[in-house]
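Below is a filled-in request sheet from our internal design queue. Each sheet records the structural input a requester submitted and the sequence that came back. We keep these sheets so that new team members can see what a complete request looks like end to end.

REQUESTER: design group, bay 2
PRIORITY: normal
MODE: inverse folding
CHAIN LENGTH: 172
BACKBONE (tokenized):
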């Protein structure tokens, strides 16, 4: 009986040692800092950029210290960047675009969201639109950013964890 217990104990030790061997990887399939991530392609102004069911095109970029309309003007804290854009909904359901769908990311890692407070000075704020299926809308997005930064526009199909792409805006 003692012999069977001893063999059983040795068997358990061998199983435990095999489970702790350096060949096993308990983090298999988990992305960590040492695992290379897929790099995003950076598109240019004028490119059609597909993200999920949406296609973004930045047609033109304008920079100014002030934005104006017939009722007045306002001065930027840094510099205003107005993006003339088109967004197309290629899906089968309506999509409501909000400011979180398009953010400016600068080379220092700062994120700038659309300036909704001063967007009333625009002809058409594209970042507060409902887009019907198989339709497109054109309009503008306004950002107040720091001068002299190099940045990209990050666009998404879902601001709560969807796909993203980058569009180079160059140095502002």
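RETURNED SEQUENCE:
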């Amino acid at each position: 009986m003692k012999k069977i217990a001893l063999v059983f104990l040795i068997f358990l030790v061998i199983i435990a040692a095999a489970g702790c061997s350096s060949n096993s990887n308990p983090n298999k399939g988990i992305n960590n800092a040492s695992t290379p991530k897929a790099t995003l392609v950076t598109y240019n102004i004028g490119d059609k950029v597909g993200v999920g069911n949406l296609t973004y095109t930045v047609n033109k970029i304008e920079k100014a210290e002030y934005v104006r309309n017939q009722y007045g003007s306002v001065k930027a804290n840094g510099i205003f960047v107005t993006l003339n854009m088109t967004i197309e909904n290629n899906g089968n359901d309506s999509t409501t675009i909000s400011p979180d769908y398009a953010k400016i990311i600068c080379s220092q890692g700062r994120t700038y969201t659309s300036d909704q407070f001063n967007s009333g000075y625009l002809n058409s704020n594209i970042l507060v639109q409902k887009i019907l299926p198989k339709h497109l809308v054109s309009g503008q997005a306004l950002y107040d950013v720091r001068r002299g930064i190099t940045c990209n526009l990050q666009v998404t199909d879902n601001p709560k964890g969807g796909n993203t792409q980058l569009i180079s805006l160059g140095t502002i």
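SHEET NOTES:
- The first strand starts at residue 42 and ends at 43.
- The two ends are 82 Å apart (CA to CA).
FILED BY: M.R.
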